[in-house]
Write a structure and sequence with these properties.
single chain, 333 residues, alpha+beta, Uridine Diphospho-n-acetylenolpyruvylglucosamine Reductase, domain 2, Uridine Diphospho-n-acetylenolpyruvylglucosamine Reductase, domain 3, Enolase-like, domain 1, four-stranded antiparallel β-sheet, 13 helices, binds flavin-adenine dinucleotide, oxidoreductase activity, flavoprotein, FAD, oxidoreductase, CO_DH_flav_C_dom_sf
Length: 333
């Protein structure tokens, strides 16, 4: 049996200092819905757990200022059910309410959701030497490439990794240009979400733009009138309690019946929450109809590289995006 220390931090400073003092093998734990899973699978083997669930003010939700602010410790269920979020930013509420199950959302935090690891089956098989995985053991190889890759990414992949970024919430946050608020031993910083998730490249194990010991304290989302004309469409193998095969977050800012600015991001198809700039450019200045929606969907996947079993994601993803654009477009009328 491996020993494990467990400490419950009361505030941000205590969490960061305790982590730094614990050193190698320390992990923050919030709702525990992912981390405990990975520990049972043998993928994560922490020696010290610093519980941040009771950090003072960590669950703050504030929609009254210039930005929407969600404390990292806010529960997924509480943000999904917030009245202002549901009315003015349905893309955010829907991305959360379509994730996991009600029981999980009652436990899991929006900060933990940002930091969850991939569901790639080879990564999650933690038996030592079972399958090579560059994310789990850097330099060991990637069993998914040329293997059972139905769920793998078609965008943002490298020769070292094709694992899909699993979260729904980060996709909606990407569409709305959120910033991730972080505190660490050297102070606080605010990171645009576009820079928070790394492409796998040669180093798939480096997934986030924060270092060990840095604590995500909150998420800020600029307010936008595109919020009301927004939606999150998620296609999965079954209608609940499943990760996305393809998903799309769309928010449309309008000038009359023309799109002034489209905010578009994709999930379930890429190695990180994927901003679909090509689709945004195509939609700009246009009225929304089926033809332009499908053209935007196809443009978003122009650079897609399928593996052996996942080419279907290209057409599925393009049509998912087209349907989401149509839904957001109907909200503008
Ligand atoms: C059966 C099942 C189905 C699921 N389906 C979906 C789905 O469809 N869509 C979806 O998006 N998600 C899904 N999830 C994932 C779920 O949403 C995550 O497990 C949850 O959001 C993680 O939050 P948590 O607070 O429990 O994180 P934890 O498990 O406590 O932590 C997760 C990771 O984040 C780190 N961490 C947590 N908080 C912080 C912080 N503030 N700062 C720095 N690091 C931090 C931890 O160290 C750990 O590495 C599913 C999970 C399960 C078990």
């Amino acid at each position: 049996m491996r020993s494990l220390s467990y400490i419950r931090a009361r505030d941000v400073r205590e969490a960061i200092e305790t982590f730094a003092a614990a050193g190698e093998g320390a992990r923050f734990i919030a709702g525990g819905t992912t981390l405990y899973d990975l520990m049972k699978l043998g993928v994560e083997r922490p020696a010290h757990l610093i519980d941040i669930a009771a950090v003072e003010g960590a669950d703050r939700i504030d929609t009254s200022g210039d930005v929407l602010f969600f404390g990292a410790g806010a529960l997924m269920a509480d943000v999904a059910e917030d009245e202002v979020v549901r009315r003015d930013y349905p893309v955010l509420a829907e991305s959360l309410s379509k994730a996991a199950s009600q029981q999980l959302r009652n436990m899991a935090t929006v900060g933990g959701n940002l930091m969850q690891r991939t569901r790639c089956p080879y990564f999650r098989n933690g038996a030592i030497g079972a399958y090579p995985c560059n994310k789990r053991e850097p330099g060991s190889g990637c069993a998914a490439i040329g293997g059972l890759d139905r769920s793998q990414a078609v965008l943002g992949i490298s020769d070292a990794c094709t694992a899909v970024s699993p979260g729904d919430w980060p996709v909606a946050l990407t569409a709305l240009n959120a910033r991730i608020e972080v505190h660490g031993p050297t102070g606080a910083r605010s990171i645009p979400i576009a820079e928070f998730y790394r492409l796998p490249g040669e180093a798939p194990h480096v997934e986030f733009a924060i270092g060990a010991g840095e604590l995500v304290t909150g998420i800020s989302v600029p307010k936008t009138d595109a919020g009301r004309n927004s939606t999150y469409l998620k296609i999965r193998d079954r209608e609940s309690y499943a990760f996305a095969l393809a998903s799309a977050a769309v928010a449309l800012a309008m000038d009359g019946d023309h799109v002034r600015q489209a905010h578009v991001a994709l999930g379930g198809v890429a190695t990180r929450p994927w901003r679909a700039h090509e689709a945004e450019v195509l939609l700009s200045g246009r009225t929304v109809d089926r033809e332009i929606a499908l053209a935007a969907g196809r443009a978003a996947f122009a650079e897609a590289r399928p593996g052996v079993h996942n080419a279907f994601k290209i057409e599925l993803g393009a049509r998912t995006l087209a349907d989401a654009i149509m839904t957001a477009g109907r909200k503008t009328q």
